[in-house]
Amino acid sequence: MPSKDELLQHPIQHIDIKRHNVVALVDAMQHMAYSSRDLARAASIYERMLRDHDCGVILCHAGSLVSAGLKQIVIDLLRNNMVDAIVSTGANIVDQDFFEALGFKHWIADELYKSGTEDATLRELMIDRIYDTLIDESELRLCDETTEKIANSLEPRPYSSREFIHAMGAYLKADGKTPKGGGVDSIVFAAYEKNVPIFCPAFSDCSAGFGLVAHQHARQNKPKVSIDSAKDFYELTQLKIANPTTGLLMIGGGVPKNFAQDIVVAAEILGVDAPMHKYAIQITVADVRDGALSSSTLKEASSWGKVDTTFEQMVFSEATLALPLIAGYAFHKNAQAGRQERAWSLILDPVTA
Fold it and tell me: Which of 177, 257, 278, 306 is catalytic?
Protein backbone atom coordinates (compact mmCIF):
# COMPACT_ATOMS: atom_id res chain seq x y z
CA MET A 1 0.00 0.00 0.00
CA PRO A 2 1.34 3.48 -0.84
CA SER A 3 1.76 6.05 1.92
CA LYS A 4 -0.41 9.12 2.26
CA ASP A 5 2.57 11.33 1.42
CA GLU A 6 3.14 9.41 -1.81
CA LEU A 7 -0.42 10.04 -2.96
CA LEU A 8 -0.62 13.68 -1.88
CA GLN A 9 2.23 15.17 -3.89
CA HIS A 10 0.76 17.36 -6.64
CA PRO A 11 -1.51 20.18 -5.45
CA ILE A 12 -4.41 21.60 -7.44
CA GLN A 13 -3.33 24.94 -8.91
CA HIS A 14 -6.03 27.59 -9.18
CA ILE A 15 -6.36 29.15 -12.61
CA ASP A 16 -5.61 32.88 -12.77
CA ILE A 17 -7.78 34.67 -15.34
CA LYS A 18 -5.61 37.77 -15.01
CA ARG A 19 -2.81 35.93 -16.83
CA HIS A 20 -4.86 34.68 -19.79
CA ASN A 21 -6.57 37.10 -22.15
CA VAL A 22 -9.35 35.05 -23.74
CA VAL A 23 -11.22 37.90 -25.45
CA ALA A 24 -10.22 36.99 -29.02
CA LEU A 25 -11.03 33.32 -28.42
CA VAL A 26 -14.49 34.00 -26.97
CA ASP A 27 -15.26 36.57 -29.69
CA ALA A 28 -14.42 33.93 -32.29
CA MET A 29 -16.78 31.46 -30.59
CA GLN A 30 -19.78 33.70 -31.24
CA HIS A 31 -19.49 32.74 -34.94
CA MET A 32 -19.53 29.02 -34.16
CA ALA A 33 -22.47 26.89 -33.00
CA TYR A 34 -23.82 24.82 -30.10
CA SER A 35 -22.25 25.48 -26.69
CA SER A 36 -19.53 27.73 -28.10
CA ARG A 37 -22.03 30.30 -29.31
CA ASP A 38 -24.05 29.99 -26.08
CA LEU A 39 -20.90 30.60 -24.06
CA ALA A 40 -19.94 33.65 -26.11
CA ARG A 41 -23.40 35.13 -25.58
CA ALA A 42 -23.18 34.41 -21.84
CA ALA A 43 -19.82 36.21 -21.70
CA SER A 44 -21.32 39.24 -23.43
CA ILE A 45 -24.26 39.23 -20.99
CA TYR A 46 -21.89 39.15 -18.02
CA GLU A 47 -19.97 42.05 -19.54
CA ARG A 48 -23.25 43.96 -19.99
CA MET A 49 -24.28 43.12 -16.42
CA LEU A 50 -21.08 44.65 -15.07
CA ARG A 51 -21.30 47.76 -17.23
CA ASP A 52 -24.81 48.36 -15.86
CA HIS A 53 -23.75 50.19 -12.71
CA ASP A 54 -27.26 49.97 -11.28
CA CYS A 55 -27.01 46.19 -11.29
CA GLY A 56 -26.13 44.19 -8.19
CA VAL A 57 -24.42 40.95 -9.22
CA ILE A 58 -25.13 37.75 -7.30
CA LEU A 59 -22.79 34.80 -7.86
CA CYS A 60 -24.24 31.36 -7.14
CA HIS A 61 -22.20 28.19 -7.08
CA ALA A 62 -22.89 24.55 -6.37
CA GLY A 63 -20.67 21.53 -6.85
CA SER A 64 -17.01 21.09 -5.96
CA LEU A 65 -15.59 24.16 -7.62
CA VAL A 66 -12.89 25.42 -5.25
CA SER A 67 -11.32 21.98 -5.02
CA ALA A 68 -11.28 21.88 -8.82
CA GLY A 69 -9.11 25.01 -9.19
CA LEU A 70 -11.65 27.84 -9.53
CA LYS A 71 -10.96 29.60 -6.22
CA GLN A 72 -8.77 32.38 -7.64
CA ILE A 73 -11.44 33.34 -10.18
CA VAL A 74 -13.96 34.03 -7.41
CA ILE A 75 -11.34 35.95 -5.42
CA ASP A 76 -10.56 38.09 -8.48
CA LEU A 77 -14.26 38.76 -9.06
CA LEU A 78 -14.57 39.88 -5.43
CA ARG A 79 -11.50 42.08 -5.40
CA ASN A 80 -12.44 43.76 -8.71
CA ASN A 81 -16.04 44.56 -7.70
CA MET A 82 -17.40 42.04 -10.21
CA VAL A 83 -19.69 40.34 -7.68
CA ASP A 84 -21.73 41.88 -4.87
CA ALA A 85 -23.08 38.82 -3.06
CA ILE A 86 -22.45 35.08 -3.12
CA VAL A 87 -24.90 32.24 -2.59
CA SER A 88 -23.11 28.92 -2.30
CA THR A 89 -23.10 25.41 -1.02
CA GLY A 90 -21.33 25.08 2.30
CA ALA A 91 -18.78 22.69 0.81
CA ASN A 92 -17.30 25.35 -1.47
CA ILE A 93 -17.05 27.93 1.28
CA VAL A 94 -16.04 25.82 4.27
CA ASP A 95 -14.68 22.39 3.27
CA GLN A 96 -12.75 23.82 0.34
CA ASP A 97 -12.08 27.57 0.54
CA PHE A 98 -11.83 28.04 4.32
CA PHE A 99 -9.99 24.69 4.43
CA GLU A 100 -7.31 26.07 2.08
CA ALA A 101 -7.22 29.34 4.03
CA LEU A 102 -6.22 27.30 7.09
CA GLY A 103 -3.15 26.18 5.16
CA PHE A 104 -4.33 22.91 3.63
CA LYS A 105 -4.49 21.83 -0.03
CA HIS A 106 -6.41 19.73 -2.51
CA TRP A 107 -4.36 17.20 -4.44
CA ILE A 108 -4.40 15.74 -7.93
CA ALA A 109 -5.28 12.04 -8.05
CA ASP A 110 -3.49 9.98 -10.67
CA GLU A 111 -5.42 7.88 -13.18
CA LEU A 112 -5.54 4.75 -11.01
CA TYR A 113 -7.03 6.50 -8.00
CA LYS A 114 -9.59 8.62 -9.85
CA SER A 115 -11.15 5.46 -11.34
CA GLY A 116 -12.69 4.42 -8.01
CA THR A 117 -11.11 0.97 -7.91
CA GLU A 118 -8.81 1.97 -5.05
CA ASP A 119 -11.30 3.79 -2.82
CA ALA A 120 -10.94 1.17 -0.07
CA THR A 121 -7.21 1.94 0.04
CA LEU A 122 -7.96 5.66 0.24
CA ARG A 123 -10.33 5.02 3.14
CA GLU A 124 -7.61 3.15 5.05
CA LEU A 125 -5.27 6.10 4.51
CA MET A 126 -7.95 8.63 5.53
CA ILE A 127 -7.93 10.26 2.12
CA ASP A 128 -11.21 11.54 0.66
CA ARG A 129 -11.80 11.66 -3.10
CA ILE A 130 -13.77 14.05 -5.30
CA TYR A 131 -13.48 12.38 -8.72
CA ASP A 132 -9.83 13.20 -9.58
CA THR A 133 -9.06 15.28 -6.49
CA LEU A 134 -7.83 14.02 -3.11
CA ILE A 135 -8.20 15.56 0.37
CA ASP A 136 -6.54 14.64 3.65
CA GLU A 137 -9.37 13.62 5.98
CA SER A 138 -7.33 14.44 9.10
CA GLU A 139 -6.98 18.03 7.86
CA LEU A 140 -10.72 18.22 7.23
CA ARG A 141 -11.25 17.23 10.86
CA LEU A 142 -9.13 20.22 11.88
CA CYS A 143 -11.39 22.40 9.73
CA ASP A 144 -14.41 20.97 11.58
CA GLU A 145 -12.76 21.77 14.90
CA THR A 146 -12.03 25.32 13.79
CA THR A 147 -15.69 25.97 12.96
CA GLU A 148 -16.58 24.63 16.41
CA LYS A 149 -14.01 27.01 17.92
CA ILE A 150 -15.60 29.93 16.06
CA ALA A 151 -19.08 28.89 17.22
CA ASN A 152 -17.83 28.69 20.81
CA SER A 153 -16.52 32.27 20.55
CA LEU A 154 -19.84 33.75 19.48
CA GLU A 155 -22.76 34.98 21.55
CA PRO A 156 -25.20 32.04 21.75
CA ARG A 157 -28.11 32.94 19.46
CA PRO A 158 -29.44 32.17 15.96
CA TYR A 159 -27.23 33.48 13.14
CA SER A 160 -27.70 33.74 9.44
CA SER A 161 -25.02 31.81 7.56
CA ARG A 162 -23.87 35.20 6.30
CA GLU A 163 -23.14 36.33 9.86
CA PHE A 164 -21.28 33.11 10.70
CA ILE A 165 -19.16 33.27 7.54
CA HIS A 166 -18.30 36.88 8.38
CA ALA A 167 -17.04 35.57 11.74
CA MET A 168 -14.93 33.05 9.82
CA GLY A 169 -13.34 35.94 7.91
CA ALA A 170 -12.67 37.74 11.18
CA TYR A 171 -11.05 34.56 12.54
CA LEU A 172 -8.69 34.37 9.54
CA LYS A 173 -7.70 38.00 10.07
CA ALA A 174 -7.13 37.61 13.80
CA ASP A 175 -5.14 34.41 13.31
CA GLY A 176 -2.93 35.91 10.60
CA LYS A 177 -4.16 33.49 7.92
CA THR A 178 -4.19 36.18 5.26
CA PRO A 179 -1.96 37.15 2.33
CA LYS A 180 -0.34 39.87 4.44
CA GLY A 181 0.18 37.37 7.23
CA GLY A 182 2.01 34.98 4.93
CA GLY A 183 -1.01 32.80 4.22
CA VAL A 184 -3.04 32.30 1.07
CA ASP A 185 -5.91 34.44 -0.14
CA SER A 186 -9.40 33.01 0.14
CA ILE A 187 -12.97 33.71 -0.88
CA VAL A 188 -14.01 34.00 2.77
CA PHE A 189 -11.32 36.55 3.57
CA ALA A 190 -11.71 38.57 0.34
CA ALA A 191 -15.46 38.80 0.96
CA TYR A 192 -14.79 39.81 4.57
CA GLU A 193 -12.48 42.62 3.44
CA LYS A 194 -14.83 43.80 0.68
CA ASN A 195 -17.98 43.52 2.83
CA VAL A 196 -19.51 41.11 0.31
CA PRO A 197 -22.08 38.85 2.00
CA ILE A 198 -21.84 35.09 1.49
CA PHE A 199 -24.93 32.97 2.06
CA CYS A 200 -24.98 29.19 2.42
CA PRO A 201 -28.67 28.31 2.84
CA ALA A 202 -27.83 24.67 3.66
CA PHE A 203 -24.89 25.65 5.84
CA SER A 204 -24.92 22.60 8.10
CA ASP A 205 -24.45 20.32 5.08
CA CYS A 206 -20.68 20.77 5.17
CA SER A 207 -17.69 20.83 7.49
CA ALA A 208 -19.29 23.67 9.45
CA GLY A 209 -22.17 21.34 10.26
CA PHE A 210 -19.84 18.98 12.12
CA GLY A 211 -18.44 21.88 14.11
CA LEU A 212 -21.91 23.15 14.95
CA VAL A 213 -23.07 19.66 15.96
CA ALA A 214 -20.10 19.39 18.32
CA HIS A 215 -20.81 22.88 19.67
CA GLN A 216 -24.47 22.13 20.34
CA HIS A 217 -23.75 18.69 21.81
CA ALA A 218 -21.27 20.18 24.29
CA ARG A 219 -23.86 22.71 25.45
CA GLN A 220 -26.85 20.37 25.74
CA ASN A 221 -29.61 22.54 27.28
CA LYS A 222 -27.50 25.68 27.58
CA PRO A 223 -27.87 28.59 25.10
CA LYS A 224 -26.08 27.82 21.86
CA VAL A 225 -25.24 29.08 18.38
CA SER A 226 -27.59 27.96 15.62
CA ILE A 227 -28.07 28.79 11.93
CA ASP A 228 -31.34 30.42 10.89
CA SER A 229 -31.96 29.73 7.18
CA ALA A 230 -35.08 31.92 7.19
CA LYS A 231 -32.88 34.82 8.29
CA ASP A 232 -30.62 34.05 5.31
CA PHE A 233 -33.61 34.31 2.98
CA TYR A 234 -34.82 37.51 4.65
CA GLU A 235 -31.40 39.16 4.44
CA LEU A 236 -30.89 38.36 0.76
CA THR A 237 -34.43 39.59 0.04
CA GLN A 238 -33.53 42.87 1.76
CA LEU A 239 -30.68 43.26 -0.74
CA LYS A 240 -33.10 42.82 -3.64
CA ILE A 241 -35.40 45.46 -2.17
CA ALA A 242 -32.49 47.88 -1.62
CA ASN A 243 -31.06 47.26 -5.12
CA PRO A 244 -33.93 46.38 -7.50
CA THR A 245 -31.76 45.81 -10.60
CA THR A 246 -29.98 42.48 -10.20
CA GLY A 247 -28.11 39.91 -12.25
CA LEU A 248 -27.28 36.27 -11.56
CA LEU A 249 -24.12 34.39 -12.52
CA MET A 250 -24.94 30.80 -11.58
CA ILE A 251 -22.56 27.85 -11.64
CA GLY A 252 -24.51 24.66 -11.16
CA GLY A 253 -27.96 24.74 -9.62
CA GLY A 254 -29.60 23.29 -6.55
CA VAL A 255 -30.23 25.30 -3.40
CA PRO A 256 -28.04 28.33 -4.26
CA LYS A 257 -29.82 28.80 -7.59
CA ASN A 258 -33.33 28.52 -6.18
CA PHE A 259 -32.50 30.66 -3.15
CA ALA A 260 -31.21 33.53 -5.31
CA GLN A 261 -34.04 33.34 -7.83
CA ASP A 262 -36.72 33.24 -5.13
CA ILE A 263 -35.88 36.62 -3.60
CA VAL A 264 -37.98 38.30 -6.31
CA VAL A 265 -41.06 36.44 -5.09
CA ALA A 266 -40.07 36.96 -1.44
CA ALA A 267 -39.93 40.72 -2.01
CA GLU A 268 -43.47 40.58 -3.40
CA ILE A 269 -44.60 38.64 -0.31
CA LEU A 270 -43.23 41.53 1.74
CA GLY A 271 -45.31 43.98 -0.30
CA VAL A 272 -42.54 45.26 -2.57
CA ASP A 273 -43.02 45.14 -6.34
CA ALA A 274 -39.48 44.00 -7.12
CA PRO A 275 -38.53 43.47 -10.78
CA MET A 276 -37.38 40.10 -12.01
CA HIS A 277 -33.63 39.54 -12.22
CA LYS A 278 -32.66 41.58 -15.28
CA TYR A 279 -29.68 39.40 -16.24
CA ALA A 280 -29.08 35.69 -15.70
CA ILE A 281 -26.48 33.15 -16.76
CA GLN A 282 -26.37 29.53 -15.71
CA ILE A 283 -23.55 27.06 -16.33
CA THR A 284 -24.73 23.47 -15.86
CA VAL A 285 -24.35 19.93 -17.15
CA ALA A 286 -27.73 18.80 -15.79
CA ASP A 287 -30.31 17.32 -18.14
CA VAL A 288 -33.40 19.48 -18.46
CA ARG A 289 -35.72 16.51 -19.07
CA ASP A 290 -35.83 15.14 -15.52
CA GLY A 291 -37.34 18.24 -13.93
CA ALA A 292 -34.46 18.75 -11.50
CA LEU A 293 -33.78 22.27 -10.32
CA SER A 294 -30.18 22.26 -11.53
CA SER A 295 -31.43 21.78 -15.09
CA SER A 296 -34.50 24.02 -15.08
CA THR A 297 -33.92 26.68 -17.72
CA LEU A 298 -33.91 30.38 -17.08
CA LYS A 299 -36.91 30.71 -19.39
CA GLU A 300 -38.71 28.28 -17.07
CA ALA A 301 -37.78 30.55 -14.16
CA SER A 302 -39.42 33.41 -16.04
CA SER A 303 -42.74 31.56 -15.86
CA TRP A 304 -42.41 31.82 -12.08
CA GLY A 305 -41.74 35.56 -12.28
CA LYS A 306 -38.07 35.27 -11.25
CA VAL A 307 -35.91 35.96 -14.32
CA ASP A 308 -36.41 38.29 -17.27
CA THR A 309 -35.85 36.68 -20.66
CA THR A 310 -34.13 39.54 -22.49
CA PHE A 311 -30.62 38.91 -21.16
CA GLU A 312 -30.54 35.27 -20.09
CA GLN A 313 -28.37 32.41 -21.28
CA MET A 314 -28.00 28.75 -20.39
CA VAL A 315 -24.54 27.28 -20.97
CA PHE A 316 -24.57 23.48 -20.90
CA SER A 317 -20.93 22.97 -20.03
CA GLU A 318 -18.75 21.76 -17.20
CA ALA A 319 -17.80 24.69 -14.94
CA THR A 320 -14.01 24.38 -15.09
CA LEU A 321 -14.24 24.86 -18.86
CA ALA A 322 -16.85 27.62 -19.04
CA LEU A 323 -16.24 29.87 -16.03
CA PRO A 324 -12.61 30.84 -16.86
CA LEU A 325 -13.76 31.90 -20.34
CA ILE A 326 -16.83 33.86 -19.22
CA ALA A 327 -15.14 35.55 -16.25
CA GLY A 328 -11.86 36.08 -18.13
CA TYR A 329 -13.69 37.67 -21.06
CA ALA A 330 -15.40 40.26 -18.86
CA PHE A 331 -12.20 40.93 -16.91
CA HIS A 332 -10.04 41.54 -19.98
CA LYS A 333 -12.78 43.65 -21.60
CA ASN A 334 -12.39 45.79 -18.45
CA ALA A 335 -16.13 45.60 -17.82
CA GLN A 336 -15.47 46.27 -14.13
CA ALA A 337 -14.08 49.75 -14.83
CA GLY A 338 -15.88 52.38 -12.81
CA ARG A 339 -17.83 49.81 -10.82
CA GLN A 340 -18.02 50.76 -7.15
CA GLU A 341 -18.12 48.24 -4.34
CA ARG A 342 -21.58 47.99 -2.83
CA ALA A 343 -20.46 46.65 0.57
CA TRP A 344 -23.81 44.94 1.03
CA SER A 345 -22.76 43.39 4.34
CA LEU A 346 -22.94 46.85 5.87
CA ILE A 347 -26.58 47.12 4.79
CA LEU A 348 -27.37 43.80 6.44
CA ASP A 349 -25.57 44.20 9.76
CA PRO A 350 -28.52 45.96 11.47
CA VAL A 351 -31.14 43.66 9.85
CA THR A 352 -32.98 41.34 12.21
CA ALA A 353 -35.58 38.78 11.26
Answer: 306
